[in-house]
Amino acid sequence: MSVPAAAEAPRRKDRLWEETCLELFLGTADSGEYREFNLSPSGHWNVFRFPRYREDKREEPAFTSLPFAVRIGPDALELSMELDAGKIIPAGETIEAGVAAVVKTMSGSTIHWALLHPGPRPDFHRRENFALEFPPG
Questions:
Q1: Rounded to whole angstroms, how far apart are CA atoms 7 and 121?
Q2: Dihedrals φ, ψ of 10, to 5°?
Protein backbone atom coordinates (compact mmCIF):
# COMPACT_ATOMS: atom_id res chain seq x y z
CA MET A 1 0.00 0.00 0.00
CA SER A 2 1.16 3.51 -0.83
CA VAL A 3 0.65 5.81 2.17
CA PRO A 4 0.96 9.58 1.73
CA ALA A 5 3.63 11.19 3.91
CA ALA A 6 2.51 13.11 6.98
CA ALA A 7 1.81 16.76 6.20
CA GLU A 8 3.58 19.43 8.26
CA ALA A 9 0.36 21.45 8.38
CA PRO A 10 -2.70 19.24 7.74
CA ARG A 11 -5.53 21.18 6.12
CA ARG A 12 -8.79 20.90 4.22
CA LYS A 13 -7.90 19.56 0.79
CA ASP A 14 -9.81 18.27 -2.23
CA ARG A 15 -9.30 15.10 -4.26
CA LEU A 16 -7.95 13.02 -1.38
CA TRP A 17 -9.53 9.92 -2.96
CA GLU A 18 -6.76 9.99 -5.60
CA GLU A 19 -4.45 8.56 -2.92
CA THR A 20 -4.96 6.19 -0.02
CA CYS A 21 -7.78 7.58 2.15
CA LEU A 22 -10.73 6.66 4.33
CA GLU A 23 -14.22 7.84 3.43
CA LEU A 24 -17.18 8.09 5.78
CA PHE A 25 -20.68 8.85 4.49
CA LEU A 26 -23.42 10.07 6.83
CA GLY A 27 -27.07 10.75 6.13
CA THR A 28 -30.43 10.40 7.82
CA ALA A 29 -33.03 7.75 7.14
CA ASP A 30 -35.64 10.09 5.69
CA SER A 31 -33.48 12.35 3.52
CA GLY A 32 -31.46 12.10 0.32
CA GLU A 33 -28.98 14.62 1.77
CA TYR A 34 -25.66 13.26 3.03
CA ARG A 35 -22.10 14.22 3.98
CA GLU A 36 -18.85 12.71 2.72
CA PHE A 37 -15.83 12.81 5.05
CA ASN A 38 -12.39 12.22 3.50
CA LEU A 39 -9.46 11.44 5.82
CA SER A 40 -5.94 11.04 4.46
CA PRO A 41 -3.10 9.36 6.36
CA SER A 42 -1.19 12.56 5.56
CA GLY A 43 -3.49 14.43 7.96
CA HIS A 44 -5.34 16.31 5.22
CA TRP A 45 -9.14 16.10 5.33
CA ASN A 46 -12.36 17.39 3.84
CA VAL A 47 -16.13 17.21 4.39
CA PHE A 48 -18.60 17.65 1.54
CA ARG A 49 -22.36 18.14 1.61
CA PHE A 50 -24.59 16.64 -1.09
CA PRO A 51 -28.32 17.50 -1.14
CA ARG A 52 -28.92 14.46 -3.40
CA TYR A 53 -26.93 11.56 -4.87
CA ARG A 54 -23.71 13.04 -6.30
CA GLU A 55 -25.38 16.42 -6.94
CA ASP A 56 -24.31 19.95 -6.02
CA LYS A 57 -21.21 18.99 -3.99
CA ARG A 58 -20.16 21.74 -1.57
CA GLU A 59 -17.62 21.90 1.23
CA GLU A 60 -19.47 21.51 4.54
CA PRO A 61 -19.00 24.78 6.49
CA ALA A 62 -19.96 23.19 9.85
CA PHE A 63 -16.40 21.86 10.07
CA THR A 64 -13.42 24.21 10.02
CA SER A 65 -11.10 21.50 11.28
CA LEU A 66 -11.35 17.75 11.57
CA PRO A 67 -8.87 16.39 14.09
CA PHE A 68 -8.17 12.70 13.71
CA ALA A 69 -5.38 10.29 14.60
CA VAL A 70 -3.33 8.13 12.25
CA ARG A 71 -1.41 5.05 13.32
CA ILE A 72 0.72 3.20 10.83
CA GLY A 73 1.91 -0.24 11.86
CA PRO A 74 3.76 -2.98 10.01
CA ASP A 75 0.50 -4.63 8.91
CA ALA A 76 -2.13 -1.99 9.56
CA LEU A 77 -3.21 1.57 8.92
CA GLU A 78 -5.66 3.04 11.47
CA LEU A 79 -7.49 6.34 11.23
CA SER A 80 -9.74 7.35 14.11
CA MET A 81 -11.71 10.45 14.98
CA GLU A 82 -14.35 11.70 17.33
CA LEU A 83 -17.14 13.36 15.43
CA ASP A 84 -19.79 15.75 16.72
CA ALA A 85 -22.56 14.55 14.38
CA GLY A 86 -24.89 17.08 16.00
CA LYS A 87 -23.26 19.73 13.81
CA ILE A 88 -24.90 18.16 10.74
CA ILE A 89 -27.56 15.68 11.93
CA PRO A 90 -30.64 17.02 13.72
CA ALA A 91 -31.37 15.53 17.16
CA GLY A 92 -33.77 12.62 17.09
CA GLU A 93 -32.84 11.45 13.59
CA THR A 94 -31.63 7.96 12.70
CA ILE A 95 -28.12 8.15 11.23
CA GLU A 96 -27.22 5.98 8.25
CA ALA A 97 -23.51 5.55 7.55
CA GLY A 98 -21.22 4.00 5.00
CA VAL A 99 -17.51 3.39 5.49
CA ALA A 100 -15.06 2.88 2.65
CA ALA A 101 -11.38 3.04 1.84
CA VAL A 102 -9.49 3.90 -1.28
CA VAL A 103 -6.13 2.14 -1.27
CA LYS A 104 -3.42 3.07 -3.71
CA THR A 105 -1.02 0.20 -4.29
CA MET A 106 2.72 0.51 -4.67
CA SER A 107 2.28 -0.13 -8.42
CA GLY A 108 -0.11 2.86 -8.66
CA SER A 109 -3.38 0.99 -9.12
CA THR A 110 -6.34 1.67 -6.84
CA ILE A 111 -8.33 -0.81 -4.77
CA HIS A 112 -11.72 0.10 -3.26
CA TRP A 113 -12.97 -1.41 0.00
CA ALA A 114 -16.35 -0.89 1.63
CA LEU A 115 -18.76 -2.55 4.00
CA LEU A 116 -21.01 -3.13 1.00
CA HIS A 117 -20.74 -2.91 -2.81
CA PRO A 118 -24.28 -3.42 -4.12
CA GLY A 119 -23.56 -2.30 -7.69
CA PRO A 120 -21.35 -3.70 -10.43
CA ARG A 121 -18.67 -1.08 -9.63
CA PRO A 122 -17.69 0.62 -6.37
CA ASP A 123 -19.84 3.70 -5.82
CA PHE A 124 -19.68 4.72 -2.18
CA HIS A 125 -22.28 7.48 -2.67
CA ARG A 126 -25.13 5.02 -3.28
CA ARG A 127 -27.47 4.94 -0.28
CA GLU A 128 -27.50 1.13 -0.40
CA ASN A 129 -23.85 1.40 0.77
CA PHE A 130 -24.91 3.15 3.98
CA ALA A 131 -24.98 -0.21 5.75
CA LEU A 132 -24.71 1.06 9.34
CA GLU A 133 -27.68 2.48 11.20
CA PHE A 134 -27.56 4.42 14.47
CA PRO A 135 -30.95 5.09 16.09
CA PRO A 136 -31.56 8.39 17.89
CA GLY A 137 -30.15 8.80 21.39
A1: 31
A2: -55, 140
Q: Assign 100 a pLDDT band (cuts: 50, 70, 90).
A: very high
List C-alpha distances in Å: 73 to 3, 70, 79, 119, 133: 11, 10, 11, 32, 30
Q: CA angle, 130 as apex, 137 and 76 as ends, to 5°?
A: 95
pTM for this prediction: 0.92
pLDDT score recorded for residue 3? 85
Upper half-sphere CA count for residue 1 (Cβ side, 13 Å) = 18
Distance, in Å, from the CA atom of 131 to the CA atom of 114, rounded to the nearest integer, reads 10
pLDDT tops 80 at residue 137: no
95: which residues sit within 8 A by CB, 6+ positions away?
Answer: 26, 27, 28, 85, 89, 133, 134
Residue 61 is predicted with a pLDDT of 96
Interacting residues of 59 by C-beta distance below 8 A, sequence separation 6+? 12, 46, 47, 48, 49
